[in-house]
Each structure stands twice: as C-alpha cells, then as structure tokens.
Amino acid sequence: MSKEPDRIFAQPLDKVPDFAFNEDVVRVFPDMIKRSVPGYPTIVENLGVLAAQFAQPNSVLYDLGASLGAVTQALRRHVRTDGCRVIAVDNSAAMVERCREYLNGQNSMFQELLPVEVIEGDILALDFQPASVVALNFTLQFIAPEQRTALLSRIRRSLLPGGALILSEKLRFNDAEEHALLTDLHVAFKRANGYSELEIAQKRSAIENVMKPDSLEEHRERLLAAGFSKVVPWFQCLNFASLIALP
Ligand SMILES: C[S@@+](CC[C@H](N)C(=O)[O-])C[C@H]1O[C@@H](n2cnc3c(N)ncnc32)[C@H](O)[C@@H]1O
Ligand SMILES: O=C(O)C(=O)C[C@]1(C(=O)O)C=C[C@@H](O)C=C1
Q1: Contact in structure between 246 and 228 (CB atoms under 8 Å)
Q2: Residue 10 falls within a domain, yes or no?
Q3: pLDDT at 107 (0 to 100)
Q4: 3 pLDDT more than 90
Q5: Is residue 184 part of a domain?
Q6: Could you report the per-residue pLDDT of 148-159, keeping only the tens digit for each?
Q7: Which domain, by its residues, includes 117?
C-alpha cells in the first residue's frame, strides 16, 4: 500500500473544489483515511472477523465502494467458508486500477485466497447476486440521500438467510450539544494526527456538498424500511460507527 502522506489540503486554495476520489486522493488514500476516521483500522480488521460469522457456503461477499480494497483484504484474511468469492465494486477508475494492483500482489504472495473480482461501476446500477455478506464501509454517506433506501432494499433482497449487511458511516447527532462535542473531538483527533487547522477547514468545505451523514436513528429507520429485521451497532469511536443489519 502507498505510504505517501496526505498533504492535499495543506496549501491555501482560492476556491476549495468538491471532494472527489481522483488520482491525487488515490495516491494518499491509505494515509488520509487512517488519519481522518477514528477507529478505521479496528473497523476494517473486525469487519473480516464479523464477516466470517455470516459467510455462507458458495455465496458472494460484496465490498461496495471498495476503494483500494482494504475490506476485501480483511475478508480474505478471515473468511474460510467453502466456495465464497468476493466482488469489490467502485466507480472511481483511479481507485479500481490501484485496487487491482494491490490484490494481484496479494494473489502472488499467498495461496488459497478467496477469489476476487474487481468491478469498475456504480453500485446503484449493480445487478446483485445472492450474497451472504455485504460491506458498505464509509460508502453510503457518498450516495445521494434520496437513493439510499432503494439501494439498501436491493441489498436486502440479495441477502441469503444467515447473512448480514455491515454498514460503517460517519454520524451526525440530533442533539445539538452531542453533535458539537463529537465534532470538536473529531477535529482534535485530526489535529493529533498531524492535520493543520487549514487542512481541517479546507477538507470540511471539500466534503460538505458530497458527503451527507445521517444520524443513528435515521440509519436504523431506513434499514428497517428497506426490509432488514434487526440493526445492531457493534462499534462507535467519536462520530464514526459501524452497524450490523440482519435480513
Ligand atoms: C470513503 S471511500 C470507502 C473506503 C473503503 N470502503 C475502505 O474501507 O477503505 C468511498 C468509496 O466509495 C466509492 N463510491 C462512491 N459512490 C459510489 C457509487 N455510486 N458506486 C461505486 N462506488 C462509489 C468512492 O469512489 C470511494 O472509493
Ligand atoms: O469527516 C471527515 O472529515 C473525513 O475526512 C471523513 C472521510 C470519510 O468518512 O470517508 C471523508 C473522505 C475520505 O474518504 C476520508 C475520510
């Protein structure tokens, strides 16, 4: 994985463009996400552990919005169920190209890994195959809010009995005081990870039009409306959380 440090917002910009998963972001993405999302390494590794509990023989495991394939690699480290294969999907050409390189490197180093197919495409247009695990790791927040329920309904319909959706997201909070406190603590987390005030402020304006977090209550209601029977939060660090949704 690239070790290049994220300096994307380090210099003052006349106008901060909307955030995009382009070549510049791809180059620094492992550093960016680790320094921006509290608990990210724990979530990714344990997503593999959780997935192993829900994986059903001869089924598909989806990594939706796979970026560089961190979740796919965790699935390959932990899932040992017979006949499983991973389908990783992302609509950023730059991400997909680099993701394929990393996974090919993994293929040549280890034997008996789950087969992986990396698809460059829009998860909103995906024809889902019967799946036992679907991971949306910090991806739903980038989908237009009015399209989220339909996507989750299609995922729900593709899930096999015994399977699960694992959904990780940045959260907002309905209680203004709680929202302000956890937002401040997230800024402190970024500062402690070496981001300057300028970098933090410019990143905030870059993502505000493209990334729309929901509250835990909104997630729960939407998942139930999409046909899931049970929603169980399994991780929260500051304003970032991960949920298990059962069919
Ligand atoms: C924050 S990143 C996900 C991080 C990744 N899952 C991980 O754990 O390292 C969000 C990803 O979702 C992808 N994405 C956003 N909208 C998408 C869509 N409609 N279809 C496919 N991928 C999408 C972006 O290109 C980006 O790579
Ligand atoms: O909330 C922020 O400030 C973030 O930087 C979050 C976030 C994310 O949750 O995906 C946004 C974009 C990058 O992909 C990395 C992290």
Answers
A1: yes
A2: no
A3: 80
A4: no
A5: no
A6: 999 999 999 999
A7: 40-172+211-246
Q: Does residue 68 lie within any of the structural domains?
A: yes
| Residue 45 resides in a domain | yes
Give this prediction's pTM. Answer: 0.98
Chain mean pLDDT for the chain: 97
137 known ligand binder: yes
Ligand nearest to the CA of 239: 2
Residue 143 annotated as part of some ligand binding site: no
Distance CA 211, CA 147 (A): 13
Q: What is the CATH number of the domain that holds 158?
A: 3.40.50.150
Q: What is the 245 CA–ligand 2 centroid distance (Å)? A: 22
pLDDT at 110: 74
CA-based nearest residue to 92, from 71, 65, 74: 65
Contact status, residue 142 vs residue 65, Cβ threshold 8 Å: yes
Quote the number of domains for the chain.
1
